[in-house]
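F.,

This is the one I mentioned.
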């Protein structure tokens, strides 16, 4: 990479941000990584500057298994770069992008707080809420409701295969919220006891539908059948330029996922992770 610091690895830097700060979301970490990249690069022409930045975005997207929300962050950064590149020199564009990217990272937490502020009136005393997997935005909303002295209880899906629902349950217990972890297959069983369903989003597509952790779609179907409100919470920077018509239009779709294969003496726990989808698409008609 001729125009950047030869020692800078954007994937390693991104991974470090995610590991060092559990509260940071992939799109915010992506923008932070791109800011660091352009601080170190030494492009002399606008074309070279843009090529290096786009190449770094492609590298980030290809290095992650779930690239939807990360792609949203990259797209926000690239859109800003494209806008600035028409009116400024390379150095002016670099400085403006660093300022804008740094401000974006610093204000990301405020976006989550704004969602919590607008969403907290939906949480009422004595409610039973069902949440799926782990979502920083959903947890922020529930934490705000706890600080408002609201009394409620929560069912949390285990969320296989990574069991991310256990993280949500541990945080809820630390807040003093009564909660119960349920099997993903048990959502229909508990739905009658639930007052509403809350989910986050990896991305919000142009139709208004959601891309989120696998299991969100079936949860939405069951909620609609049971006439329970199904709410999705997401920051505005998670809006992505996608228009899927089915599960198989997602960028993460692989034709070999869930394909029948000849197997003998299979290691099923590892096979489960390798051969199953991690995200699904929920059409807007299922969202309250």
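My design for it:
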């Amino acid at each position: 990479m001729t125009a950047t610091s030869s020692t800078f690895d954007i994937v390693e830097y991104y991974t470090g941000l995610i590991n060092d700060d559990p509260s940071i979301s992939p799109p915010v970490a992506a923008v932070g990584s791109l800011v660091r990249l352009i601080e170190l690069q030494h492009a002399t022409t606008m074309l070279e500057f843009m090529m290096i930045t786009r190449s770094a975005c492609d590298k980030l997207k290809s290095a992650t298994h779930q690239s939807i929300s990360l792609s949203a962050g990259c797209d926000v950064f690239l859109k800003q770069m494209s806008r600035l590149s028409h009116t400024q020199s390379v150095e002016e564009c670099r400085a403006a992008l660093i300022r804008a990217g740094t401000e974006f990272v610093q204000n990301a937490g405020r976006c989550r707080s704004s969602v919590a502020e607008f969403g907290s009136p939906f949480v009422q005393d004595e409610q039973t809420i069902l949440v799926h997997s782990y979502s920083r935005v959903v947890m922020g909303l529930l934490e705000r409701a706890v600080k408002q002295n609201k009394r409620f209880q929560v069912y949390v899906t285990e969320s296989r295969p990574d069991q991310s629902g256990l993280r949500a349950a541990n945080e809820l217990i630390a807040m003093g919220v009564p909660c119960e972890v349920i099997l993903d297959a048990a959502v229909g069983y508990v739905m009658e006891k639930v007052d509403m369903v809350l989910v986050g989003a990896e991305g919000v597509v142009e139709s208004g539908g959601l891309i989120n952790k696998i299991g969100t779609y079936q949860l939405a179907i069951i909620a609609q059948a049971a006439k329970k409100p199904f709410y999705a919470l997401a920051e505005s920077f998670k809006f992505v330029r996608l228009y899927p018509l089915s599960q198989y239009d997602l960028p993460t779709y692989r034709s070999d996922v869930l394909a029948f294969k000849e197997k003998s003496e299979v290691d099923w726990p590892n096979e489960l992770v390798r051969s199953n989808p991690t995200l699904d698409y929920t059409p807007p008609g299922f969202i309250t």
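The chain has a mean pLDDT of 90.

Talk soon.
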